[in-house]
Amino acid sequence: MQATVDEAHNFAMEAATPFVNQGFTVREDYWNGEVESGQQLAIKHQLFKGNEYAFWLGTANPDCELEVAVYDDKNQPVHMERKADKHSCSVRVNPPKTGTYTVVFSVKSKKERGVTWALAYGYR
User: Fold this and answer.
1) What is the signed CA dihedral for 67, 28, 96, 66, rounded to 10 degrees?
2) Helix (H) or strand (E) holding 75
3) Where in the chain are the domains?
């Protein structure tokens, strides 16, 4: 069975459900693609002080390790809480100041060379 980016997005949205229940609004835009297993990707994103953010990384590939972290402009980690399960990983962020932050993530498969991924986010 070939994993798809749509399935990866579905797993990211499943990871978002508990956050939605806590009042987070999920943004419609998200990032996705296919990448070599273990390759680290980075996305720059504007975050605003006073908002709390969550990023959800999903994959449809089995037996993967998922990592996601958020860094400020001085390359210091700012994520607060991390959760992971079989097909997703999430971090919660409360940015100390408004600015451009870097979301760094990877999906590492124990069996497959290429993996699908989707990264979604929300705020409250």
Assistant:
1) 0
2) none
3) 5-123
The rounded distance, in Å, linking the Cα atoms of 91 and 112 is: 25
Count of beta carbons in the 10 Å neighbourhood of residue 81: 10
Compute mean pLDDT per 10 residues along the chain, 124 residues long, and list them.
Answer: 80 96 95 95 96 97 94 91 92 96 95 94 97
**DSSP 8-state symbol, 77:** B
The token duo for 46 is 């504007």
Q: Which residues contact 96 (CB under 8 A, 6 or more apart)?
A: 49, 72, 78
CATH 2.60.120.260, applies to 5-123: no
* CA count, 13 A, side-chain hemisphere, 103: 23
- What's the whole-model pTM score? 0.93
Tokens in use for 59?
A: 């994959």
